[in-house]
Amino acid sequence: MPHLFEPLNQRSVNFPNRIAVSPMCQYSSENGFANDWHLVHLVSRAVGGAGLIMTEAAAIEPQGRITPQDLGIWQDAHIEMLAKIVESLHHHGAVAGIQLAHAGRKASTTPPWDGGGELSESEGGWTPIAPSAIPFRLESPAPKALSIEDIKELIASFVNAAQRSLAAGFNLIEIHAAHGYLLHEFMSPLSNQRTDEYGGSFENRIRFLCEVVQAVRNILPDQMPLWVRISAIDWISDGWDIEQSIALCHILKSLGVDLIDCSSGGIVPGEKFVVGAGYQTAFSDRLRREAKIATGAVGMITEPAQADQILRTGQADMVLIGREMLRDPYWARRAAKQLRQLVSVPKQYDRAWH
């Protein structure tokens, strides 16, 4: 089995190692624009040696933002700064990925350091949208249930965002269908109580995601990988479960998805997580084995030996490091040193590493 610093090839993209910076919201944009914070934040992790740098969730339309400070890619004007970031990521040897997202009923909130509560329209917020008019929290205002026409327009928005991602030079696109955001809301029976072709049966609940994937894949070059992040389980009875995830992954693979980024939860408040080191790797392992698709493991992966063991035992094809990358932008270089792997270091830093 591969190890942490073995390259991975998908389509025509060569990942120099199996370490990815997981998408992590920075809540630091204005009107969706990337800025110098995003440049420094992302590029420093490339200098730090990660093979893949993923942006935070980039909203496909303004009302798809979790907060008004979210990154966006709903207008052409967003491309210029993102292209500058991508160019710098490439200069430092990293693959550049972007996560396309819509927050659904979890939109229009304040940043977490301001409490994460709902924003009213008078405070700069908006009415969230969802598959059904069911709020995320019982005390929250009900979101607007989407019409069939609304769904078709959102599919077009995902496609337009993907085209802008191509224009910015990204090497990889990930579609966010996890953590209780819009696409996941359609998948889970806990949030989807529709009675039309987008609700009810498993086939109907996954229809929106499959249509988005198919539409995006159709406009991407054949040589460009397409990933999907899912919540493998909802951590609550009668919700989305691992068996449905396996069935979904078989379908996504047939639609041209190259890797499943395996997370979990987020659909309702108060889920009872079984949390511990690498607590979600069992999901990436099972989906990889049973759906015969490449997977990424994410969640409380903090130590180099732990990440390496996930790969060597075949539980995933990539590891996505989140909060540990916030603590240490040079995690990948520290991992190489601990695992005694010879990797190149920027000449400016060489005297500190050898």
UniProtKB/TrEMBL annotation:
Classification via SUPFAM superfamilies: FMN-linked oxidoreductases
UniProt keyword Transcription present: no
Taxonomy, superkingdom: Bacteria
Name of this chain's protein: NADH:flavin oxidoreductase/NADH oxidase
Keyword Flavoprotein annotated: yes
CDD domains in alphabetical order: OYE_YqiM_FMN (cd02932)
Alphabetized GO MF terms: FMN binding; NADP binding; NADPH dehydrogenase activity
Cofactors: FMN
This protein's UniProt keywords: Flavoprotein, FMN, NADP, Oxidoreductase
Residue ranges of every copy of the NADH:flavin oxidoreductase/NADH oxidase N-terminal domain listed in the record: 4-340
